[in-house]
Specification:
Blueprint: E1 4-8, H1 13-24, E2 28-33, H2 36-49, E3 54-59, H3 67-78, E4 82-87, H4 100-125, E5 129-138, H5 142-145, H6 152-171, E6 177-183, H7 198-206, H8 216-226, E7 238-241
Parallel strand pairs: 1-2, 1-4, 2-3, 4-5, 5-6, 6-7
Helix pairs in contact: 1-8, 3-4, 4-6
The protein binds NADP nicotinamide-adenine-dinucleotide phosphate.
């Protein structure tokens, strides 16, 4: 029987690659993002490249608690429980000014986009999650070495590290694993928008031991492993995937 997998932030970059990886495994995959047209495009791409792909979409803002009812309703309509939840939704806020109002906006946006989106997905889906399932959250290399602006993005991602240890302990009795993936620089994503200058990209690639950016399919493979029986004993971990640009701790 196919598993039901929920991927947030699935209309672009790592989330889209993740949804595709599960579809290739014949899992039933729900793609979530805010913009329906982008999701529809991602669904189309997956359907055209994966024969028999079983993919659906829901346009939801995962920082809005109102999303939970629609999510649960969808899951119930499938007659399945959620076997895997991969929370890729996240973004780095534009750094504003250094006045206190701008700083606060930056920190609130970082928290909403990276922490609240994950917490709402996890806590909202737990009642319909299968025992033996898996949860994967997306952090960042920035959680270790800081980020631009006043550092809100890196700090928000670091909050997920603490959350995952609590989750793993809470859910261990249900045999649910809970892990964080912390990527370095990945190309072919919308993450940097127009903020990635050639000089910055060169610098990010130079920092790696492998001398190249990550491919979203590589992060997707790690998420897939963590949600597979082979990865069943891996829990409460922060797995870094960064081409060697930051050493594992
Ligand atoms: N790319 C990198 O180099 C890199 C490095 C370190 C960490 N990361 C982390 O890895 C994860 C995936 O990054 P990515 O590069 O694949 O990002 P991306 O290409 O920018 O895609 C982000 C996805 O999240 C969705 N999203 C954003 N906010 C959302 C919300 N509130 N509710 C629902 N969906 C939301 C976006 O769609 P909508 O905008 O339509 O909602 C989109 O589908 C992120 O958490 C990011 O912080 C990425």
């Amino acid at each position: 029987m196919s598993r039901l997998i929920v991927v947030t932030g699935a209309s672009a970059g790592i989330g889209k690659a993740t949804a595709k990886r599960f579809a290739e495994n014949k899992d039933k995959v729900l793609l979530i993002g805010r913009r329906e047209d982008r999701l529809a495009q991602a669904v189309k791409e997956i359907e055209s490249s994966v024969e028999g792909a079983d993919v659906a979409l829901l346009a939801l803002d995962m920082s809005d608690p109102g999303s939970v009812a629609r999510l649960q309703e969808y899951v119930k309509s499938t007659g399945l429980s959620v076997s895997g939840l991969v929370c890729c939704a996240g973004s780095a806020p534009q750094a504003g000014g250094e006045d206190i109002d701008s700083v606060l906006i930056e920190w609130q946006e970082a928290y909403q986009s990276n922490v609240v989106t994950s917490v709402i997905a996890v806590e909202g889906l737990l009642p319909v999650m299968a025992d033996g399932g898996s949860i994967v959250l997306y952090s960042s290399i920035a959680a270790y070495r800081g980020s631009g602006g006043t550092g809100a993005y890196g700090a928000a991602k670091a909050a997920l590290h603490s959350y995952i240890h609590t989750l793993a302990a809470r859910l261990g009795p249900r045999d649910i694993s809970a892990n964080v993936i912390a990527p370095g620089y990945f190309a072919d994503t919308d993450f940097f928008g127009d903020r990635l200058t050639t000089a910055r990209e060169t610098m990010l690639v130079r920092q790696t031991a492998l001398g190249r950016a990550g491919d979203p399919a590589e992060a997707a493979e790690l998420g897939f492993y963590l949600c597979s029986p082979a990865g069943g004993y891996v829990t409460s971990q922060i797995l870094q995937i960064n081409g060697g640009s930051y050493h594992g701790v």
